[in-house]
Write a structure and sequence with these properties.
heterodimer; A: about 230 residues; mainly alpha; MetI-like fold; about 80% helix; B: about 250 residues; Rossmann fold; 6-stranded mixed β-sheet; 4-stranded antiparallel β-sheet; 9 helices
């Protein structure tokens, strides 16, 4: 029996590109929405952890521990398939909403810890200097601590954003036809699995490379104040 | 103008100082000297509540407060009547030289940005760093950073400036420019309390030198008296040691 190996169907691959690109906006929208929500939640969690708000601090720790300690896919299934059975008003939750919810909670747990580390890392004497000129806690947070913590945390947060874009592909398991879901359907119709998944891999790759480029530019900008 | 009574500070079981009294006239320049670890810096930091004192009264012009039940508002008011110069400069790393000086005027005093920046430029002129307005701290020498630190304190328009070993972190070549600026302020009758090991500065500039040891004020007086005729044995030993070291 001869070793069967068909050659790549380039025409099919080329024709697939515009089709799949049509689903890229949904992927990016899910990632962007999750990122914005996760950032807000992560900042909240970080401030609770740094200032040790009584009661809330324990809850924040539990939250972070759970969402870092369980797989994202399990969390997504829990929200989409599991939770509506308990909380019946969630029966109408759609896949996109469930995916955004899952990504938000999952990534906010990670991001909270890197934001917390960035805040704690700010030189204590600068905080004292701000106090010494009469700034309130809120003023010194807003003017001195958070701008510097942002700079420290940005590279890590960008990495989480990149990870988030790739993780939106899991939404196809909730029935969402985003980039990955669309590819799956196309491949199932044409049986050209290798071609289809190769094209989608390259699309993800290019998007992530573009972001890495923006990340480098952003870091350079943020570091301007610290050049000798 | 400044009246401190019965100030006490403890860290856990350890009492840093107890029952400290200190009075200053407007325009008076006090230099605090003494061995390391005797509570000089802690005393300074208690005056503006960077450390919370455990007991005592602090009065600065029209504001008086009791350390045991000072409110948040009183502490903020106290900090607006005092300014602080740090040993390690403690400039805001995310702000330029100009912004470091203007920050308090904008955020704390609520001045319009343009007015605060104009005033900050005047101060930069006075401290001889007009050309560094746009420079970030990381790009400045230690001496320049500390002059900005002093400029930030000047901008606070405080009743008193507290200097916590302002030249101790500096490379030797930058010490003179910082001491020079402090002398300039002294000549303008700026009220100040200076913790330092610079004995020559104390001799030249202080109205009164305080010798602190083991958490108490051992003795105090005009530098001409304290340096030449110290009354207490501890003062004598300390002075002979540091003056010998300074002479080398």
């Amino acid at each position: 029996m001869a070793l069967a190996m068909h050659s790549l169907d380039f025409d099919y691959m080329l024709s697939l590109i515009p089709v799949l690109l049509g689903y890229l906006p949904l992927t990016l929208e899910m990632a962007a929405a999750s990122m914005v929500c996760a950032l807000v939640l992560a900042c909240l969690l970080a401030v609770i952890r740094v200032t040790r708000v009584p009661g809330l601090n324990g809850l924040a720790l539990l939250f972070i521990s759970f969402f870092r300690g369980t797989p994202l896919l399990v969390q997504l299934f829990l929200f989409y398939y599991g939770l509506p059975q308990v909380l019946t008003f969630l029966v109408s939750i759609n896949g996109v909403t469930a995916a955004i919810l899952g990504l938000t909670l999952h990534f906010s747990a990670y991001m909270a810890e890197s934001i917390r580390a960035a805040i704690v890392g700010i030189d204590r004497s600068q905080i004292e200097a701000a106090q010494s000129i009469g700034m309130t806690q809120a003023q010194l947070m807003r003017r001195i601590v958070l701008p510097q913590a942002t700079r420290v945390a940005t590279p890590t947060l960008m990495n989480y954003f990149i990870d988030m874009i790739k993780s939106t592909s899991l939404a196809f398991t909730l029935g969402v036809t985003e980039l990955m879901g669309a590819t799956q359907k196309e491949a199932a119709g044409s049986f050209l699995y290798f071609e289809a998944f190769l094209v989608v891999a390259v699309i993800y790759w290019i998007v992530v490379e573009g972001l890495s480029w923006i990340q480098k530019w952003l870091e350079k900008r943020l570091n301007r104040a610290y050049q000798r | 103008m400044i009246d401190i009574r019965g100030l006490r500070k403890r860290f856990g079981e350890h009492t840093v100082f107890d029952d400290i009294d200190l009075t200053l006239e407007r325009g008076e320049i006090i230099v605090v000297v003494g061995p390391s670890g005797t509570g000089k810096s802690t005393l300074l930091r208690c005056i503006n509540f960077l450390e919370q004192p455990d007991a005592g009264q602090i009065r600065i012009s029209d504001l008086s407060l009791d350390a045991t039940h000072a409110t948040r508002e009183q502490i903020l008011a106290l900090r607006r009547r005092t300014a602080f110069v740090f040993q390690n400069y403690a400039l805001f790393a995310n702000k330029t030289a100009l912004e470091n000086i203007a920050e308090g005027m904008i955020v704390v005093d609520g001045q319009p940005k343009a007015k605060a920046h104009a005033r900050a430029r005047e101060i930069l002129e006075r401290i001889g760093l007009a050309d560094k307005a746009g420079a970030y701290p990381a790009a400045l020498s230690g001496g320049q950073q500390q002059r900005i630190g002093i400029g930030r304190a000047m901008a606070a328009n405080a009743d008193v400036i507290l200097f916590d070993e302002p030249t101790s972190s500096l490379d030797p070549q930058w010490v003179e420019e910082v001491l020079g600026l402090m002398k300039q302020l002294a000549a303008e009758n700026q009220t100040m309390i200076v913790v330092t090991h610079e004995m020559q500065f104390a001799r030249d500039v202080a109205d009164r030198v305080i010798y602190m040891d083991g958490g108490t004020i051992v003795e105090q007086g005009p530098p001409s008296e304290l340096f030449t005729h110290p009354q207490d044995e501890r003062t004598r030993r300390f002075l002979s040691k540091v003056l010998a070291a300074n002479a080398i």
